[in-house]
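Why does residue order matter? Because the sequence determines the fold. Keep that principle in mind as you read this record.
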Amino acid sequence: MAHESAEDLFHFNVGGWHFSVPRSKLSQFPDSLLWKEASALTSSESQRLFIDRDGSTFRHVHYYLYTSKLSFSSCAELNLLYEQALGLQLMPLLQTLDNLKEGKHHLRVRPADLPVAERASLNYWRTWKCISKP
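Structure:
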């Protein structure tokens, strides 16, 4: 993210958690509420938006915006992620989660799929199929 200038970033305060997303990443989701709200800001306005959602769950949305991959460590978080994606109108993420729900994808939690801040020792993580559905 060092190559992105400050004016190319949108800053979100989500339930007290602070996230920054480059314009180029957010613009890939033109139908999302995130893009609609961020792109409506004028250059004179602060590019920081407050979103009244759970910041802990939003970190998975943030990871998805950057990588187009899912990242979570429990089935309960999957349900919360589905609710947030629905509320934010992130249709590609909803489609991915629906595919997971329909059994088109098997959920496997691996340390390499999780952000560095969320990783634990390799012995901590177990790999299993998530049987709870959003």
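The beta strands are 9-14, 17-22, 48-51.
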